Amino acid sequence: MPAKDAFPVSIRRSQRARHVRLVVKPGGVELVVPPHVSEVQALIFMHRQRQWVERKLMEIRDRLNQDTHLREPLASGSTVPFQGREVPLVVRQLAGARLRIARAEDGPFEIALPASSSIPVDLQVRTALFSWVAKWMRIEADRLAHLYGHASGLLPRNIRVKRMKTRWGSCGPRNDINLNWILAFAPPSVLEYVVVHEICHIRHRNHSREYWALVTHCLPGWPREREWLKRQGGELLQRFA
To answer: What is the DSSP string of 148-208?
Structure first.
């Protein structure tokens, strides 16, 4: 049995996983374990990778300490990269107002907050943005799902937009697709890729060669968008998660 680790470890069983996988996050390590591997075997595997895990944790925490601008609160005068383009926030605190948000085409996000609220402005703005984005993204994702999945019968039963801390999307056993709301702040082609990625899981519940062939058939340029998520996605997660 490995010695006790100096970092938090969570274990997640995955029916789709073929091998034990380590996911290093700012708060610790997630151990993704396939059905045929025991918990003890998975912990032994992680212990063998301990130096690599500790190095990655240090790199992540150093980067977070350096990128303090990512944690700046959302308030009037700041911007958000909606669909990859910086859009201003206009925030007004009004007596008797309800929390509400609106945006005219190509205009700023206009947010009204109740002046009497004890909730920090940053949290209220995030709540308002999530409400607006969830409605917008469901419509956009439904359009993309029909565009790519209609002819091949890859239509999801339902599309949900959720707050997700580590994943960009998922496809459930009943063909329900979940999307991370933070995709609204990536370029449009990135949301397009994640939708295609998830609807292809309706046919292939894995990341096999056949699965990636289907993704390529639907969206030949997908590696570019996947690379964008690898390089830029972490900053979005830290800023909005």
So the answer is: HHTTTT---SEEEEE--SS-SEEE-TTSEEEEEGGGGGS-HHHHHHHHHHHHHTTT-SS--
Question: Is the predicted pLDDT of residue 42 greater than 70, yes or no?
Answer: yes
Rounded CA separation 16/178 (Å)? 17
pTM assigned to the model: 0.71
Query: Residues 124, 99: contact at Cβ < 8 Å?
Result: yes
Q: Encode pLDDT of 195-238 as tens digits.
A: 999 999 999 999 999 999 999 999 999 999 999 999 999 889 88
Ranges of each domain in the chain: 9-66, 79-240
CA angle 165, 16, 139 (to 5 degrees): 50
- For residue 143, which amino acid is it? R
Please give the angle made by the CA atoms of 123, 126 and 130, to the nearest 5 degrees. 140
- When pLDDT is cut at 50, 70 and 90, the band that residue 63 belongs to is low
- What's 79-240's CATH class? alpha beta
Our CA angle for 112, 118, 123, nearest 5°, is: 60
